[in-house]
Amino acid sequence: MKTVLYTRVLIWTPIIFIGYFISAQIGFKIAFLNSQVSPVWPPEGVGLASLLLLGPIALPGIYLGATLANFFNNPHIQTAFIIGIGNTLSSYVNYRIIKRVSEKTDPIYSTKNLIYFLSIGTIPGSFISTVLGVTSLWYWDFLSTELYFNVFFTWFSGEMLGFLIVAPLLYVWFHPKAKLKLELHKQIELLLWIILVYVSGTIAFSDEWPLLFLPIPFVIVTSIRFRQFGATLSTVVLAFTAVTLTIDGKGVFARRDETGLSINDSLIFLDAFLFCISGIAYFLVTATRERERAQQASLNSLQVLNELKEKANEELEKKVLERTAVIEEQRVEIEKQLDMAKRIQESLFPQKEIFPEGVEILFKNIPMMKVGGDLYDIVWRPEKQELGVFICDVSGHGIPAALLSALVKTSLDKWKEDPSDLKENLESIRTQIIPNLREHFVTASLLHLHTDSGSLTFARAGHFPLFIIRKSGALVSLKPMGRIITPIFAILAEEERFQLETGDLIVMLTDGLTEAREPESLQMFGEERLLHLIRDIRGLPLKEIRDQVFQSVIQISGGITAIQDDLTFGLIRYTGSVDEKVKVGS
C-alpha cells in the first residue's frame, strides 16, 4: 500500500509542479508591485483542483511550485519560502473544509456545495495566504506601510478569484469521470459561444460603449447549454478579458486618482463583478444539475417500481396459477364427493316399483345442486289397500340440506309401520330430528289414502295445502292446521279428510316450483299459474303433465342451471279401478 502511495507521489509531484509553475507565470504577467501581487492568482486554482482530484499526495507538488515560482520571479529566499507556505496552506485548508462540509468534492455539484464553496470553501484559505504573503513583503521592505491594506485587499481578491474561477475549471475539465463528449457540431457551437463571450467582454470593458451587461447573456446561455463545462470556461475567458483590459485602464472599473490609474481600487471592484458573474453561472449549473438528477432519480424510481410491479405480477401470477391448480384439484374432489352424495341421496327416494291399486302415482325430484333438501317417500300396503305419501322441504340448499333430509329419512320408520296416524307420525318425525335442526326448519305433508274407497286423510306441518283438481276442473284445497317443524314450537297438526271421485287429480309439491323467477323481471311462477297449467292439461297422462310443468318452470328460470331451489313434484290420479297400474318414479 505504501509503495503505491509513494509511486503516485513521485508521478504526480512533477506534473503538479509544472502546472503550478506555468499558471504562476501567467499570474505574474498581470501582477504589479514588484511583480509579486496579482489581481487573479491562477495557481491557487491549480492547487485546490489538484487536492480535490488527487487528495493530499498533491501537497509536495503544490509547495515546490509555489516556492520556486515566487523565488524565480523575485529571488528572495525568505519571502519565497513564506509565500510558498501560505499558498500551500490556503489550498489545503480550503480543501479540508470543502471535503468536510460538502457531499461531494465537486464545487458545483449542488446548490449546497456551491454555497459552501463560495463562502467557507474559499475565504479562509485566501485569508491565510494573504496574511502570510503581504506581511512577508512588508517585513522585508518590498511593500510600504501605507500600501499594506490596499495590497492586502488586492491579494485577497486575487486569491479568491483563483479559487473561484480557476479551480472549478480544472476540476471539471480534468475529472476522469466527467468527460465532455460532444459531437462535432456541438464542439463548434461551444467554440462559437466562447468567442461571443470574449468579443462581448472586449466590448463591455472598452471605453467606447457603456455595455457592461453585454457578456452576461452569453455566459448564461453557455452555462445552460453546456452545464459545468460551459460555465467554467466562459467565466475564465470573461475574467481574463476583464482583468487585462482593466489593467490597461479600460472599462468602467478602471479607477483613477490624482496619481493616475488606481490598480488596487480598480481590481477590487472588478473582482466583485467577476465574483457575481461566476456565481450566477455556477448557480444556474447547480440548479440544472439538481433538476436533472431529480428527474433521473424519478425515472430510476419509476423503473424500480415497474420492475417491482413486474416481479410482483409474476409472483402473483405464479401464486394464482398454483392456487388455481389447488382449487381445481379441490373442485374435482368436491365434484366426486357431490356425485357420491347424489347417489346416496337418490337412494333415499323410493327404489322399488310400486303399483298401487286404484291410483296412478308419479313423483320427480330435481335438486338445485347435485344434492338438495327435498324428500318424498311412498308406502303401499296392498293387504289393507292403503297408500301413504310423505313429502318435505328442508330449509337451505346443497349438502347441509341434503344431510338433514337424510336425517328426516331415518325418522320415517314409525310412519312406514303405520301410515294412517298422521298427527302422531309428524310429531314423531319432529322429536327425532329437532336435536340437529338448530337454525334450520322443515315443512312436511303426510297423505293417507284407502284406494279401494277413495277415502283420503291429509295432515301437514307448515307445508303447501293438498291441491285436488276434480275431473270437472274444479279446484279443492285441503288446508289443515300445522306449524313448521322447528326446535321451538310443537306442530299442533290437525287432519282433514276428503272423499275422492274417479278422475280426481292430487297435486303435491315443494316451493321451488311456485317460487321460480324470471331472471330479468324477478316475477315468480306462482301457485295460481301452476295450478291453472295443470288444470288445463289434467286429462293428459301423468308423465306428460309432469314434463310440461317442469319445462315451464325451468324455462321461466332461464334454464336448468339457473334454477334457484330444489324442485319436487308429485301427481296422484284416483282411478277407482284396481286394474290400472303405473310405475313410480319413471
Automatic annotation (TrEMBL):
Domain of life assignment: Bacteria
Main localization (coarse): membrane
Cellular localization per UniProt: Cell membrane
Transmembrane segments: 12-33, 45-64, 76-93, 114-140, 152-174, 190-206, 226-247, 267-285
Signal sequence annotation: none
CC terms in the record's Gene Ontology section: plasma membrane
InterPro entries in the record: Bact_Sigma-Reg, MASE1, PPM-type-like_dom_sf, PPM-type_phosphatase-like_dom
Entry GO MF terms: phosphatase activity
The protein's name: Serine/threonine protein phosphatase
Protein's organism: Leptospira noumeaensis
Organism lineage: Bacteria, Pseudomonadati, Spirochaetota, Spirochaetia, Leptospirales
